[in-house]
Amino acid sequence: MDEFDVVIVGAGPVGLFLACELGLADCSVLVLEREPEPHSPWRAEPLGGRGLSAMSIQAFYRRGMLDALLTASGIDEVPDTDDPAPPRLAGHFAGMMLDAAAIDPTALPFRLPSPAPELMMTSLDTIESVLSERAAKLGVEIRYGAMVSAVTQHDESVSVQTDEQEYTARWVVGCDGGRSTVRRLAGFEFVGTEPQFTGYTMLATIADPDKLSHGFTLTSTGLYIRMQTDGHVAMMDFDGGAFDRSQQPTLEHLQAVLRRVSGTDVTLTEVQLASTFTDRAMQTTTYRQGRVLLAGDAAHIHSPLGGQGLNSGLGDAGNLGWKLAATVHGTAPDGLLDTYTGERRPIAAKVLDWSRAQVAVMRPDPHSQAIQGVIRDLIATGDGTTYVFGRISSLWIRYDLGSEHPLVGRSAPDFRLEDGTRLGDLMHDGRGVALDFSADRYLHDAAMQWENRIRYAAGAARNHLGLRAVLVRPDGVVAWVGGHDADREAFERVAEQWFGSPAIAP
Ligand SMILES: Cc1cc2nc3c(=O)[nH]c(=O)nc-3n(C[C@H](O)[C@H](O)[C@H](O)COP(=O)(O)OP(=O)(O)OC[C@H]3O[C@@H](n4cnc5c(N)ncnc54)[C@H](O)[C@@H]3O)c2cc1C
User: Fold this and answer.
1) Are 172 and 9 in contact (CB under 8 A)?
2) What is the pTM of this model?
3) How high is the pLDDT of residue 499?
4) Strands (E), 119-197
5) Using a 6 Å cutoff on CB, does residue 390 contact ligand 1?
6) Most buried residue among 125, 321, 328, 461 by CB atoms closer than 10 A?
7) Total domains, the chain
């Protein structure tokens, strides 16, 4: 029987990102994926097209994968500048498009220019290709055609059963999507709200496409989105989620729904690909049961509106990876692993509400349409646009780490030293980073006690936002900021809280 530190169930973007984080930290990792091979038309453009937001893009950037992701996504590199610029893409709320030029970049919290854009478009297939290539380099094994059907916990291990074989691991993470088998088998409670609509996404041949408007169209009977690729259409039918999603929607059904929600007599002549989704909004009450953890859609589901599911999942993986690795290596301080649920669950709860709010505004009834008008007016203001953009781009996320300093708990700004080195460049090896901007390197001796877990970097910064030093966790979250000599003890306390006692050899 094969034994691993961690078995990850599901080689979607979340499972693969987590696998890379654990591989980087020298854990032995096996990923089990039920599909027989990695690529499928559902995950490639156009149906597999996905928007990534700031935290996700930063996560790729901080591990040295940004160039590969941008290139594979057909996006030009972001200019290397120290001047704050407005974002290039802005997004939407319930189909109401934001004007990127109306965003006030100075109102976005602690933002510094960075090669990592705030939003970008890519596809599941592209993300998975970039991640699986890196995972292979890090020694992670991915087995395709391996469907997990049983998970059994023991005192010191967990066994995982596929049709072919049983595997043993110290930890198992279910990254197996919205209908997670691991979630069910391990007995996680999954709570939330039932759907208002059935959603469809399809690639079809349309006889008379000009009957449909481009982009988002809200009608008095529903909503449809005509995408840029010919024949790529998404639609939302407010049927209370009545469609039986275990069956494949037929051409006749799709045409009937499209006619209903568009209020036209548009005709489909062929459907190449079609799938369904709903706005069911649920999350598990905890992300850990003993030695089994969940991440991504396995832990939380909601409507794809606003494009946040993948981003939340990647955030889970980045948050969990270093904590689980420290637990495997025995350096984790008490309770570190449980901060995963403590930090990530409230974020998903807010994302669920964000998606519920959009559904409420889009419902084809007079009350919802009245709220829509109010929101449209608010979004037309600079403050409104900046607020909504902050939510869409994930720049709003701040964990409560017990500090009153408004930067602590947020994704670290991409500080840049005078020699041009950026914080992102210092994070490739997965350690935390202590950035010391002081002339006398006042943090040096304190930080070096954790040398194998925290990278110490010193130098004047081009913009230090008034800070003397910053401690950044491996997931890029600011754990501590320093301003005075007396702070050294505070630094040591916080370093021990996140990285464990310096006396423990990993
Ligand atoms: C139309 C649409 C548009 C979307 N747009 C966006 C967007 O723009 N931005 C965004 O952030 N999110 C978006 N989302 C949501 C996003 O696609 C998901 O949140 C994301 O794919 C979740 O990733 P995951 O790795 O958790 O799960 P998945 O991508 O579902 O991957 C799970 C993997 O586990 C495997 N698996 C399942 N069961 C087993 C088993 N028993 N054994 C082994 N393997 C198993 C599956 O085959 C799959 O490969 C959209 C969703 C839809 C439907």
Assistant:
1) yes
2) 0.97
3) 97
4) 119-123, 141-143, 148-153, 158-162, 166-174, 190-193
5) no
6) 321
7) 3
Q: Which of 131, 176, 216 to mutate to test the pocket of ligand 1 (most atoms within 8 A of CB)?
A: 176
Domain of 267? 198-278
As a whole number, mean pLDDT of residues 11-18 equals 98
Distance (angstroms) between ligand 1 centre and the Cα of 269 equals 29
Out of 392, 413, 441, pick the residue that ends a domain: 392
Atom of ligand 1 nearest to the CA of 277: 53
Handedness of CA 188, 189, 193, 196 (dihedral sign): positive
| Burial (0-12, 13-18, 19+ Cβ within 10 Å), 220 | exposed
The confidence band for 485, taking pLDDT boundaries of 50, 70 and 90, is low
**CA–CA distance, 204 with 206 (Å, rounded to integer):** 6
Q: From 455, 459, 456, 457, select the one nearest 419 (Cα to Cα).
A: 459
Phi, psi of 289 (to 5 degrees): -130, 100
Does residue 418 sit within a domain?
no
Q: What is the pLDDT of residue 402?
A: 93
Residues 143 and 160: beta-carbon distance below 8 Å: no
The dihedral region occupied by 307, where left means phi > 0, alpha psi between -120 and 50, and beta the remainder, is left
Tell me, what CATH number does 484's domain have?
3.40.30.120
184 vs 369: CA distance, rounded Å: 38
Tell me whether residue 409 is in a domain. Answer: no
Mean per-residue pLDDT, 52-62: 96
Query: Does ligand 1 come within 6 angstroms of the Cβ of 10?
Result: yes
Distance 502 CA to ligand 1 centre (A): 39
Burial (0-12, 13-18, 19+ Cβ within 10 Å), 79: exposed
What distance in Å separates the CA atoms of residue 354 and residue 472, rounded to the nearest whole number?
28
How much is the mean pLDDT over the chain?
94
What does the pLDDT average to over 399-407? 94
Q: Would the CB of 311 count as within 6 Å of ligand 1? A: yes
Cis peptide before 46 (omega within 30 of 0): yes
What angle, 0 to 180 degrees and rounded to 10, lies between the N-to-C axes of helices 309-329 and 339-362?
A: 170
Q: Is the domain of 65 the same as that of 166?
A: yes
Question: What tokens does 370 get?
Answer: 């009245």
* Residues 477, 487: Cα–Cα separation, whole Å: 19
Tokens representing residue 18 in the block: 């987590």
Cα(198) to centroid of ligand 1, in Å?
Answer: 17
Span from the CA of 304 to the centroid of ligand 1 (angstroms): 11
CATH number of domain containing 47: 3.50.50.60
pLDDT computed for residue 506 by the predictor: 66
